[in-house]
Design goal:
- By secondary structure, this protein is α+β, with helices and mostly antiparallel strands.
- Helices cover 31% and strands 22% of the residues.
- The chain is globular, with a radius of gyration of 22 Å.
Length: 563
């Protein structure tokens, strides 16, 4: 096999824009505690073959706009016949990175708006790293290793245990066993030259939220500290060129880096900023130390073939196969965010107050009573979610967002709502979607390993079910390992099981396409592996956002300094 690897700093200039992750306008970046990087591993079977590219960004999310721009730049470099299905764009999900890099409206509001400067920096760093990796391809061995993270290594806890336990296959862990209610299996692809490992793709699911919303600096958080520590470990071998360690995400949707159990919120709130930084570094170093224990394992040698498939689907209307809907006629629906989304998570990031959430739930249920017959299919697919924001219909509590213009007091209630009202007034959201509708489904094969490169945040059991769905098909094709790789190619919120969704914790409230979202992924991944797909159109792509509206909601960074 052949491989190249490279790392490039994303040239960000923090000037007081809010960061992506917590949705808090006060969470502004005025400086950099660590650089944020783009890391690339590129693999070929033979020199003439189109390369398989893994690109991981130290960001909170990746977007279709990022992916499309990077592909546009590298396609001429690889030739017009290069297949973009061989490009996997993912991220570490640090909550201390820039926002404003999506073309859709909602997840940019906190920034506030689209940031062309930061977007361009992300694209340029990614393209440069890809080109550097391709220019330095050398013969290598690929080795797949895997081992469980020991129960006494304190890096991850299930933050939604009540929802997790609703799954019939879940082990009935108790409150003090939350650290066990997740996938503790670590998977690592090692690129080796002789006896030396020169690059790795490391997969383990845990949120990069060690650093809270009270800090003011860009920071790579635990995944970034893990990558840097492991790169130092590899570089100490005396390598000819710097090592690259991609610490990417598995099923992190319901997995927190913070202790969850008795007294968890008090413990989290008592941490000082310095303690948060120290903990982020420690959490990352623990992940890196465990990766070192995999370093000497013989593992499984990976040789060809390389195969990749990429298709897009309209997630506002996916017909679910009966196998995944208990025989019901089921479909996804237009995206909507529940009140529990706005309430946040108790330890990782609180949102609106409990009394306000209670009021909004009551209002949401009144709206459902009024609109239930008109929007019966929508509410049926959304299940028991208390819908606050109907993102697909552009309504808040049933009222069109244009109605915000008649409610000026909302600007004082929350800066993000005030920003939405400003953009509505400018006419910047007339034809632009609030969130993505057309989403990517990607499958990559590397010899005996299959990667399911999924957009969004899968919970532990949701990921287990998706893997179980495709495993029989893949095993019949000679594949022995199936790995979840999440936060890939676009950002679309969460994916929970239907049982978890019914509890309507934060994760369920942020599963925007309704209670059949996971079933839709199971249906489509099964479809993409068929010789003749039934529901997939391989030519489908998201509709470009109107350029004039994007310009209206673009932001120029402030030149001020913090007071």
């Amino acid at each position: 096999m052949l491989a190249g690897w490279a790392k490039e700093i994303i040239s960000l200039h923090p000037q007081g824009l809010a960061m992506h992750g917590y949705g808090q306008a006060k969470h502004k970046a005025w400086r950099k505690r660590t650089e944020l990087c783009a890391r690339v591993i590129l693999i070929q079977e033979v020199p003439e073959q189109a390369p398989l590219i893994f690109c991981c960004l130290e960001l909170g999310y990746v977007t279709h706009a990022m992916r499309a721009a990077i592909v546009e730049h590298i396609r001429p470099f690889f030739g017009i016949h290069w297949d973009e299905a061989r490009f996997v764009l993912t991220c570490t999900h640090t909550h201390s990175g820039p926002g404003g890099c999506a073309h859709e409206v909602l997840y940019n509001l906190v920034t506030p708006g689209f940031s062309p400067e930061d977007f361009q920096a992300v694209v340029e760093a990614s393209v440069l790293a890809i080109r550097q990796a391709y220019a330095q391809i050398v013969p290598v061995d690929l080795v797949w290793t895997s081992a469980a993270l020991a129960a006494d290594i304190p890096v991850a806890w299930n933050r939604a245990l009540q929802a997790y336990l609703r799954n019939p296959e879940a082990i009935p862990y108790r409150e003090h066993e939350r650290h066990l209610a997740l996938d503790r299996q670590v998977r690592m692809l090692c690129i080796r030259q002789g006896i030396r490992t020169v690059a790795v793709l490391h997969l383990f699911g845990v949120h990069a939220t060690c650093l809270g919303s009270g800090l003011n600096a860009y920071d790579a958080d635990n995944k970034g500290y893990a990558a840097r520590a492991f790169e130092r470990f590899l570089d100490a071998q005396g390598l000819e060129k710097p090592a690259v360690a991609i610490f990417a995400q598995g099923t992190a949707g319901d997995v927190s880096p913070h202790f969850h159990g008795s007294g968890d919120l008090d413990r989290r709130q008592s941490m000082t900023p310095a303690q948060e930084v120290s903990y982020a570094r420690r959490n990352g170093h623990l992940q890196a130390e465990h990766a070192q224990s995999l370093y000497d394992l013989p593992g499984m040698v990976c040789e060809g073939p390389i195969e990749a498939r990429l298709a897009y689907a309209d997630f506002s209307n996916v017909e679910v196969a009966p196998d995944f809907s208990d025989g019901h006629l089921a479909r996804t629906t237009r995206p909507a965010h529940g009140v529990s989304f706005f309430a946040g998570t108790p330890v990782d990031g609180l949102g609106i107050s409990a009394p306000l959430a209670l009021v909004l739930r009551r209002l949401a249920r009144q709206v459902r009573l009024l609109r239930g017959k008109v929007d019966a299919d929508f509410y049926q697919a959304q299940g028991n979610k208390d819908v606050f924001l109907d993102a697909g219909g552009k309504r808040i509590l049933g009222v069109p967002i244009k109605g915000l213009l008649r409610l000026p007091f909302l600007e004082h209630l929350d800066p993000v709502v005030g920003e939405l009202r400003r953009q509505v007034r400018l006419g910047a959201v007339e034809r632009s979607p609030l969130v993505p509708i057309t989403l990517p489904i990607q499958y990559v094969r590397l010899g005996p390993i299959a990667f399911l490169a999924c957009p969004g945040e899968f919970t532990t059991v949701a990921g287990q079910r998706l893997v179980a769905t495709v495993r029989p098909i893949l095993e019949a094709a000679g594949i022995s390992e199936v790995a979840m790789l999440t936060y890939c190619n676009d950002y679309m919120g969460y994916v929970t099981t239907r049982e978890e969704y019914a509890v309507q914790t934060y994760e369920g409230g942020h599963t925007v396409y309704g209670q059949w979202t996971l079933a839709a992924f199971q249906t489509l991944y099964q479809d993409i592996l068929r010789t003749r797909p039934v529901r997939l159109d391989f030519s489908l792509r998201p509709i470009p956002v109107p350029e004039d509206e994007l310009m209206l909601r673009s932001v120029q960074p402030s030149k001020n300094t913090p007071g």
